[in-house]
Design a protein that fits this description.
5-stranded mixed β-sheet, 253 residues, alpha+beta, single chain
């Protein structure tokens, strides 16, 4: 008689194995997400610090904290009311530039006005920039007689008007001639003539209170700093001049 075969036992809890594997994988997935999030948070902190430093350097935003909030409590804390947005104040360099532009505009208007009144010729005075500063160039034809260091009477009022506009800042007055030699009882060479013209203009500026005596200097360069070719009459006329230079401020190194 054959042995009766017992029915096979069915394990109804096999699903727990798959469920445990699923939970393990899900846990590993969240661990990876958490680690990635922490790495991204460090990058975010570095980016926030860099932006905060850049804006504080320009003075645009107030400094509320040295570093961004790193804890959950700090991150969820109510944010402080930001201070009103303020535009950065102009720097000293910008203020100097604005003052220079204002002086230039006033001088331009004065020159056009004096030319319109026929006080001076259109080419007797000009403005240009140099490394040392703004240059007011006075041609001999409009301000001096040939071979003379005395300012012409009709040019005195023009120079006085210029003196009223000049800012109270350091000036340098330079006398220049062409290369034609001079030898008179008053001036032995062009050195004496150019220096005397610069000194005469300097005395007038001081008398008009345009500058402090300690902040102005006068020098003569004779024919050795030409701005045009001395081989032509037109070039020689340009070289016979007195330059008033509004010196740029010297900065500490």
């Amino acid at each position: 008689m054959s042995k009766k075969k017992l029915p096979e036992h069915v394990n109804h809890e096999r699903w727990l194995v798959s469920y445990a594997d699923f939970i393990t994988l899900l846990f590993a997935f969240f661990v990876v997400l958490f680690a990635s999030g922490q790495n991204d948070r460090r990058k975010t902190v570095k980016l926030a610090l860099a932006m905060q430093s850049a804006f504080q350097y320009n003075g645009i935003f107030d400094q509320h904290a040295k570093t961004p909030a790193l804890s959950e409590a700090a991150a969820t804390a109510p944010a402080a009311t930001p201070s009103p947005f303020a535009l950065p104040l102009p720097s000293a360099m910008n203020a100097e530039k604005q003052a220079e532009e204002k002086t230039r505009d006033q001088l331009d208007q004065l020159i056009h006005h004096q030319v319109a009144l026929h006080q001076i010729g259109a080419t007797s005075i000009s403005l240009h920039d140099a490394d040392a500063g703004l240059v007011i160039s006075l041609r001999e034809a409009g301000f001096f007689n040939s071979g003379s260091a005395e300012i012409r009477p009709e040019a005195l009022e023009v120079l006085k008007s210029i003196a009223e506009i000049l800012p109270h800042s350091p000036l340098r007055v330079e006398g220049h001639t062409d290369n034609v030699p001079i030898h008179t009882g008053q001036f032995a060479t062009n050195w004496e003539l150019s220096t005397a013209r610069a000194a005469d203009v300097t005395r007038l500026l001081i008398a008009q209170n345009a500058v402090e005596p300690s902040e102005i200097s006068a020098t003569g360069y004779a024919e050795f700093h030409p701005i045009a070719d001395n081989a032509t009459e037109a070039g020689r006329q340009k070289n016979r001049r007195v330059d008033i230079i509004l010196l740029k401020p010297t900065r500490e190194p």
